[in-house]
Amino acid sequence: MAGNEWINGYLEAILDSGGAAVAEEQRPAAATAAAEVGVKGAHFNPTRYFVEEVVTGVDETDLYRTWIKVVATRNARERSSRLENIFSEEFHPIAQLAFLLLILEKWFFMFCFRFPCEHLPEWEGIQRLAKRRWEREEGRKDAVEDMSEELSEGEKGDTVGELVLIETPKKRLQRNISDLQVWSEENKEKKLYIVLISLHGLVRGENMELGRDSDTGGQVKYVIELAKALSMMPGVYRVDLFTRQIAAPDVDWSYGEPTEMLTTGSYDLEGNELGESAGAYIIRIPFGPRDKYLRKELLWPYIQEFVDGALAHILNMSRVLGEQVGGGQPVWPYVIHGHYADAGDSAALLSGALNVPMVLTGHSLGRDKLEQLLKQGRQTKEDINATYKITRRIEAEELSLDAAELVITSTKQEIEEQWGLYDGFDVKLERVLRARARRGVSCHGRYMPRMVVIPPGMDFGNVVVQEEQAEADGDLAALISSDGVSPKSIPPIWSEIMRFFTNPHKPMILALSRPDPKKNITTLLKAFGECRALKDLANLTLIMGNRDDIDEMSSGNASVLTTVLKLIDRYDLYGLVAYPKHHKQSDVPEIYGLAAKTKGVFINPALVEPFGLTLIEAAAHGLPMVATKNGGPVDIQRCEEMRESKFDSLSSTLLQALNNGLLVDPHDQQAIADALLKLVADKNLWIECRCNGWCNIHLFSWPEHCRTYLTRIAACRMRHPQWQTDTPAASDEAAIEESLGDSLKDVHELSLRLSIDEKISLNGSPERDDSNDAELSDQVKRILSRIKKQTSPESHQSVSVKPTEAALLNKYPLLRRRRRLFVIALDCYDDKGSPEKKMIQVIQEVFRAVRSDHQLSRISGFAISTAMALSETLDILTTGKIQVTEFDALICSSGSKVYYPGTAQCMDADGRMRADQDYAMHIEYRWAHDGVKRTIMKLMNSQDGQGDDKAERFLDVVAEDATGSNAHCVSFMIKDPSKAKKAEELRQKLRMRGLRCHLVYCRNSTRLQVVPLLASRTLALRYLFVRWGLNVNNMYIILGEHGDTDHEELVAGSHKTLIMKGVVERGSEGLLRMAGSYQKDDIVPGESPLIVYTNEGIKSEEIMKALKEASKAASGM
Q1: How many CA atoms lie within 13 A of 855 on its CB side?
Q2: Considering the domain 492-640+653-700 in this protein, what is its CATH number?
Q3: In the Cβ-directed half-sphere of 379, how many Cα atoms lie within 13 Å?
Q4: Any residues with CB less than 8 A from the CB of 258 and at least 6 apart, and which?
Q5: What is the Cα–Cα distance from 889 to 101, expressed in whole angstroms?
Q6: How many Cβ atoms from other residues are within 10 Å of residue 713's Cβ?
Q7: Does domain 822-942+956-1114 have CATH number 3.30.390.30?
Q8: 637-673 burial, b if ≥16 CB within 10 A, otherwise e?
Q9: What pLDDT digit, counting tens, does each position of 1014-1068 carry?
Q10: Which terminus of the chain has fewer Cβ atoms in its 10 Å neighbourhood, N or C?
């Protein structure tokens, strides 16, 4: 702390004098407070008093504004002066104390990060959190400083003052309402197409098998009801819910049906006809093994395959809806909404391919689950990752944040305490960026997704509010005689439950969840078994899904059930605990009803509960509740302690409305028992909670949810494909206005007749005008001569074409007619990053293989996908004497540029080759060229602030590569690959600074290329599908065994992948991931019929053999 003696002296003075004085004045109150909470040896603690009483009274607005000003000060002397001024007499002592707390807190976390102390308990977790917090603070500071450079000094002061304003909940609610136009009947003329995605579990509209396994739970019910409810909203024409198609023998045949109607939308509420495609539907896309039902942790390698299948359906449906309600123009999805991490990853890719908004709902978050499991101490991080694929899940959630316009959460707690753990979301930076956007000040490409709280809805159609009668008050005497025989008909599920109990008249504690470890059922059972008073007063019912044989269940569920049975035996709970083997979904309301009639309590003790639909259901049936404090229940209910607190006004928001129970720490067994006992024993409290739940439950209806949902989405930045709509459809050949260049190609490619004067006969065949043959022949020869010259070095980007001749070039790429596309994406480079001659040999052998089959050759085209710039690509083709017009497309600079050789679209007014301008507009989304360039240089050439000397912290690792850079690609030369940061680490740091992009180490680890979020070699292929109609299923991608760091993305998907053995000896994969991250098996399927290999060597026969093998395997899927 050299140079900061004034801080040390001030702190000592506080501790010696101020703290003692305050302690003397507050000792009785503090001691009393400590005694009330049960602290042994209650004694006043100055630190605790300072945190709980003094700091809470400080106005954060002025304090945080001051802190930002100090941090933003670049000059060290000026910064010290500012700090000294803070502790002048003008500042209030309490503000000075709070400011010191900020400083000490920062020092503590830096100490934890810099000086490991393995001997301390739980030090690894403390150090991990300290490091992340330090990195996030550094990232936030860098982002703010970088954005401030573009402002004048006067603007800086104004901006800081405005950005740190802390709004009260009332002001924030008033502003949000005033800024948004609530969705209403006025929107009924809209014809919206909404896409929902929920991949894992067993999804169907009727007879849902909830609780069958850990993947088929509340999320399945939620997405089904959301799809139905949205389809009934004014202005919504069609809702598609995408999930996995499963044709496995161990599941019902209905999960193999490609389409299932949830609601029919042929007519609206007024009886007006809407159209045959209106309504809500489940769309099942086959991906992964067709005959196996896989748990969600095993689906990761097949995500790309799902995306390709879903993309094909969306494109087809957009055209169909365009014909029905779009006036002939495609009706693109209004929004693509991913549910959970796997669907979020998929939605991000689909959103990028279609350029439409994406919305995300996490349901359950990986980082939070990881922290909870580590807190339990039962598994190491490696064991957790092996079981749950947690690192792959976390990366999918980060990717989802990169692309999402809006993140819908169930509770405010989810935003602050769960999403706040992610690199891609920073609450403070998000406020800064939002404030700048409101003022019209540029954020320089930085972005944080907007998070909004929209509690889930519920269908109250089957809920009957019981009257205050003896029967409704929980007296079962009128229903069950003393010998346990029912005098009148009761629901069968009641009999199934009550047969377990010695005394069924006692209040029933109900827990309803699948037997998943994170649901924490065993802790509940221990709490019940070890509390004698609770056992005397109540029974316990555990509804743990459906089972036939525990040995046939998944290992996690079987382990929980086995432990439950052992605990029942250990505590001798026979006659006190019910655990029926089966129940139907239709039985659930009856189960709640039984618990309510006995004046029972519902409990959700989950380690983390994102929202908890069961809590809403229980409240609707008149059940008070005890719930975990981790997650949604915090916002659903305001517990007794909160109502007695002076902070009640802060929690009295619209969403914290039920006020019908108590919150507990799910790890605290005693707290669970105490809360249950309090509700069961205090009948007045029980009645109060019951009535509060009934009075406030209407806030959670589906119409209310959907109205808020559509209102929020309408406020997003709407976007859709930007290219010209006059491009003819690939299947609509009769409507195509042919150019001469197209026709010349068609003579060889598709055996079509030559069209000269563009007249079409009645039968659809082109008419020929022989009078122009001589003149035309000369023009054609000149044009073909010009095209061939494009491969000469001196004319790479300066092909001169006369205006009259330019009109005779292909107007549109032949990609729109191709039925097969062979994409050569071989990353074959030497130690200096220069392309090897083997690359040319492979291209020539691929040409020879495909053209050996005359029928295949007629319908096939070729493309190159490379990290090289256009000039370098043309150079390598020239060395092999390969005409550039042999290719229908060139994907250059790691997917940042797409060219169509030999087309008018690929030529500018001066006759020079240019990239697809529509693609350039497509990938512009969230691109910050200058910000990325500056940040990468800073991150790569520094040691994260470590080292005492500035010279020690500077590393000369990268330098700008001007040749490889363009408007949408920032390229760097790697001087020392051994000192280069991994791509995953760089992406993490860029996210913390609000920068969203793709990073690719390429050309044998000699280059680093950064391209926009919507640009990559894989996304460029999907763009060709969307733009020109060439299905990804009909693409063959030719790779080596190694390649750039995007190699894995190119392998996975629904295309056929041909991997050539022995051609590429080394790649850049070593710079992809950090230690402890997810692995290649989480991206690429271990065994797939779509992936084939050649034997070592480059021979056309081997290539053709492998291509036929891939085609045959794909046709059998």
Answers
A1: 0
A2: 3.40.50.2000
A3: 15
A4: 245, 283, 284
A5: 60
A6: 21
A7: no
A8: bbbbebeeeeeeeebebebbbbbbbbbbebbebebbb
A9: 999 999 999 999 999 999 999 999 999 999 999 999 999 999 999 999 999 999 9
A10: N
